[in-house]
Structures are given as C-alpha cells and as structure tokens.
Design brief:
This protein is α/β, with parallel strands linked by helices. It contains 15 helices and 26 strands. The protein is globular, with a radius of gyration of 28 Å.
Length: 577
Amino acid sequence: MNSIRFDNWEKFRNIISDISNGYSISLNGLTETQRHHFIYSVIAKAGRKALYIAANDLQARNALESFSGMAAGKVLYFPFREKMLYDVEAKSYDQAYQRIEILDCLLRQDFDIAVLSCESLIDIFMPPEEFAACRLSFKTGDTVDLEKLISDLARLGYERENEVEGSGQFAVRGGIIDIFPIQMREPVRIELFDIEIDSIRVFDPESQRSVQGIDRVEILPAKEFILSKEQALKAAGRIRRELREVVSRTDDKDLVNSLNKNFENYIEKLENAEYFAGIDKFIPYFYDENHSLLDYVGRDSLLFVEDVARLRQRLKNVVEEYHNQCEVLLDKGMLLPGSFLMYSDPEDLPGRFARFQTVYLNSLDEGETLTEVKKQYSLYGNNTVSYAGRIDELKKDIKAWLEKGYQITIQAMSDQRKEGLKNFLEENGIRVYSEYPKDDTPCVVIKTGQLKNGFVYPEIKWAVLCESDIVAGKKKRAAHQHKTGKKIDVFTDLTVGDYVVHQVHGIGVYKGIESLTVEGVKSEYLKIEYRDGGFLYIPITQLDLIQKYIGTEGKAPKINKLGGAEWTRQKKKSRKR
C-alpha cells in the first residue's frame, strides 16, 4: 500500500475521519479490483474488523482473492448454505464445517476481514449463545466423565468409528479418546489416567503416530444446528399442528395419505431428537425467533456492502426460486407451508443494518443504500490495459505517467517472482525501487501482492500494475487434476467393475446404473462402491464429478473409504510432487 499518496489525499482523509466518527457513508464510482484495493486500505487505516458483503457468490470469491493477495491478517470466506429439501444425505460436509468454523471466528472476533455473498444475510442460524455453548474445551489436568464426553460428542454431530479417519469422527478405546475436530487438519488423542486428562497429542490418522503434544484442544460442533430435546419436541409439535391443519383443508385422499406417511416418520425422529436426511426442510420450525449471521458479528465491526441495487435483486431472485421449488414439493405432499420461511424477509435488512456502521460501495456515481448515510463520496478510477509482453508500450506508458508526477506500483506474485520481474524491467531500461521514497518522488516501485488487474487513481496520480498485466502468457494455473484420472464423456464409456476416481471421495468401483426414486422423482444414477461397503450414487447428468482410473496396468488400486480422509491426503501429496 502506498500510504503517502493516500494520506495526502483529502478525500481519503475525510473518509477515514467519517468512519472514525461512527458515520455510515457511501463510496461510489470504483469497480471490482480497484474497489477491493481501496477498501483494504480503508480497513487497514481504520484498524477495525470488517464484514465484506458481495452482491453474489462470484463477486464474493473475487473479493476474497483480492483481500488474500494484500492482507497479512486473517481473511475468511463464508460459503452460502445450499438448501436440501429432499431426503438425501450429503456425504461431504466440508462447506458446513467451514461455515461452523467461521461462525466461531466471528463470535470470538478472531478475524480481520470476513467475505460473504448477500444470500447468507437472510439465512437462519443457531442462536449465538447456544452455538457458543456447544464449544467443548479440554486441557491437560482436567477431569473427564467418559460417558458424558461420548454423549456430548454424539450430540454435537460427531460420528463414532472404530478408527478416526476424517473430520467429525471420534473413537474410544479404554482410556484413549481420538477426536477429529472439524477445524483441525489432524485429529487429537486424549489419554486419561483414571478420570484425569494425562496428555493431549495431535496424531497422523494414517500412521496413528503422535505428531506433537498440546496443552488444550477446542471441539466445535460438527453440525450447523444442535437441538436440545426440548427444542426438538417443540419443533415436532409445530409440525404436527401444521400437518393437521393442511390435512383438514384437503379432500385429496392420496395427498392426505402421502402427507401422513411422510411426516409422521419425520415427527417421530424429531421427538427422539434424531438427526435424519432431509432435516434441513424443518429449519424454520426450530426456533421461536430467527437469528441472522449479523448476530454473530461484534457491533464494532464495519460492514462493507456492494452494489445495493444488485443485492436487492439477487435476494429477490433467491427467495422466488426457493418458493417455486417449495410449491412443487407442497403439491406432492413432501413439504408443509412452514418450510417456505427458510429465509428471513429481505425487507428486514435495513433494520438489521441499522445496528452497524456501514460503508456502501456502488459502481455508479450516485448509489443506493439500505440505511441513512452521512455523506456520499464519488471516487474516480479506471483499469489499465494488459500489456501481455509488449514492453515498448509499457515503457511508453510508464514514461508518460512519470512525467505527469505519477507513482507506479507493480505487484509481483511472490518474493522470488519480484526479483525476476525487477531484473526483467531493469534489463528493459525501467528503473525500479523496492520501497517508496519518503519525499513521494514519482517513481516505479515493485511490491509483492496478487490482484486480478491493474488500475489508476487519477486524482492522486497513482498507477497500480499487476505482473499478469505485464508479462506475456502469465495465466492462472488450472485447478489440479489427479494424475490417475481420465475424462468420461458418456456413461457408456464405463464397464461394470471399472475403477473410477471421484473428485471428493477418491477411488471406487463402478457397479452399474440404477434407477432410484428420491422424494417421488425417478432418476438414473451411477452406483460407485467404496471400501467397507459404502456406496455413492451419482446422477448421470453429473459425469464431470468422476474420471476413469488409469493407473499402472495390471495393478489394482487401493479402494478408498467413503467419508474418509485418505483421499484428501493422497491429493495433497500429489500436489507437492
């Protein structure tokens, strides 16, 4: 960051002053990457925690990429929760675990910038105080009631196994308790001496050998909603009453039979406080009062809200699409009207935002806001061209900028690339500095950082260029493909018994095509068998999720376990090679 140019900019100083005085404001005119750069500078200067709310998930990920490339602190991304209305058990909980971990960070103020898409603003969450109460903590010397610990882990969504392999699992052998907390990369082993914790050690799940000793460990819940027996009974009662009302209003006997058959089973499981596939559809019945993600955020945090007009439209579309899906399932007797309330009303957002100091970010000169603002600032900027190796054109522009009194910052992707880029530029007659001169002299300075594209601040004569703008052929590396996989174009490319590689679950055996009826909808699925009798069913429309195994000829591969961690470890090792 070029603090001298910003510090000397009256508009920037006024913005920081307004924020320091607690005012909400609107910043209009900058687009995407330049906006991220400016906002990061504001956050750093203000010294506050920040929640950056994007108008959609793509913009959220772009903001995450920009902030991660600039920030030395903790930048988090909160993934939007997809709604599962069908009775299908998801086998990959990675995003749920990520959300749980970030909620914990928000509550404990353990972050610098948290980025999310606007859809998460209208989601329903556990009451923060109940979420905090689900956090278990153990340290050496504590006394432990083993049976209560087993019960607590099960209540928090941890699955008991003979041996811990993946996140959200635990195992008990005598006075040894292995737990794989969802927020940790490796599991921990708690050893008891009678009822006292004698040691806590991180261990390798593959070799089962200890890696290091630690003094304490925190265990976060492994499910996003943890219901007490009382809450489960209350939810079951609400569902039963609504079921009776719906049944009393219909003359369709087939629909009545379908409703009673489906929902009596759900109600019975809820009354027993059991988790079951499809429980998500009952989230609106869980609590007397809905809680928002903003309830997890400290009041001193700054909210940055992108493009309010687009945000409003996005939330309207999300709710309408969800309600259309509910209408179809309601007509089939697979849903009750209460499930329509999965989202909070977007019109309630101004009331929620009123509790926070908010900075609105709009692309237009005059921007829409959700709450009253003290002032609207117009900021001017533009993106630079991509030189793509055209060094003469780059030298011409740099010379013109310097003659006009500009400082030029060039961002290299790493310290190593910084040195290489510095040599490249100097060999082409461009003098490069490593630090900004104290007298603010026009010059070219090279720094490490990763931004999507370059831009110019004409008001303060500052140009920012990225390595990818300068050097020809510098493209982002494509997502890693595991070397044992070969693309499958159509399912007829597979023969029963073929080994296949799934992106998430690893190597399994193709067992053929099966017709399955899920919530009354009949579809074709590829059946994949995994170790220990696990089966995965993949819609034939999602062939891109698997590849055909092409390992050493004549040598059978090791089959992975569904839900285990070994495939994740294999991929990590492959990337390091």
